[in-house]
Amino acid sequence: MGLLMIKKLKAHRFFLWDAVMLSAIFALADSDGAPSPDLPFMAAEKEAEAKSVPGAQARDAGEALPKWRLLRTFTHPCPVAEGIFFKNDTRILTRGYDNIVRRWNPATGQVIGPVLTHGGFVRGAAFSKDERKILTWSMDKTARLWDCATGKQIGPSLMHNGDVFGAAFSKDERRILTWSEDKTARLWDAATGKQIVPGFTHNGPVLGAILSKDETRLLTCSKDSTARLWDVASGKQIVPGFRHDSYVRGAIFSRDEKRILTWSWDKTARLWDCATGRQIGRSLTHEGDVNGAVFSKNGAKILTWSADNAARLWDAATGRQIGQSLMHNDFVNAAAFSRDETKILTCSVDNTARLWNAETGKQIGPSLMHHASVSGASFSKDETRILTFSLDNTVRVWDAATGKQLGWSLTHDHDVNGAIFSKDEKKILTWSYDNTARLWDVSGKEFLPER
Prior knowledge:
This protein is mostly beta strands. It has a single domain, classed as Methylamine Dehydrogenase, Chain H (7 Propeller). The protein is 0% helix and 47% strand.
């Protein structure tokens, strides 16, 4: 996984993407790079009009479009930061800006059982594999484990000395990994809540952490301008830190875990040898902050995207750029490969998402046009549709082959903070700064006539 950044004026919004499922989970950072509450951009910061983009699809232009059916509105007393489907789509989890995580019954629109409450903004939530437990982490300096059926906390809170930026289960879910503003990543016994080894310590806030596949090594990245590789059993650093010239915003292993890819606000992404800690080849250089990076499946190529308005494809062996840059007219917020890696999907502050030929770097079809910054974009499973969400208060579904919008826009009354397909992709869950999450039927069977 890797962090992808959106930068607007002095606010910075980050996305955590799963490279396979292309789903987005929100986190944020303030103007100096330290994560902070993911408050949406205020209306005054939103673009008033769409920028001129050749070939862009106008909103709801052309032929009459069917209107998707709104199934349910989940009303909160505050803006909604995130929404998650349970595996079988029979329940929904949301977290709001009121320090609370809620479970919902989509059939009734009612909250299920007691809410999960922290003493500060809840930065994120994740299910255990069997969805019987929920892991949450917060600005109140804790991560907490909850019984999903009862809503009761399991064991003691996992305490840091600063804002907890992230948390994750180990594969067997017997351990929990957390990382924090307090300059440490920590590993905990999930059953007892006790810390297993001394903290993995940086000289600045730890902005991300990930375990190797066999979970014997831990990779962290920090505001201290380094990423570091640790031995989990001893808590000791394995090789010298992987150093950049500014905050290291993300770090991931290659598939064979012999290499590490890092990216930074020093305008570069860099490749490192896990065994020696030495940099491999030249730095992959942009002209602005690098907002994210990802390997191709075979590790031969690297995709990066940046505040310099471009996404770029690189040869991992030589460090040379492949083809032309994928250019937008403003910061590139996110980028991802299609499943067969022949296409690249990007979205930008320039009010568009765009699809590109990965080999030639040429744009495929028209730009997918919104009226404000496009905060996120993802493919459907079969990649015939593209889902986008924007600060223009809308979520839109597009035909990936033609670039035409499918159906009316899914509309909120304020900035949309996220959107995801249900497992069967017949529904879309959206959430917004307008204090609601909304569930929509996009199966094509429940159209309402245009008025």
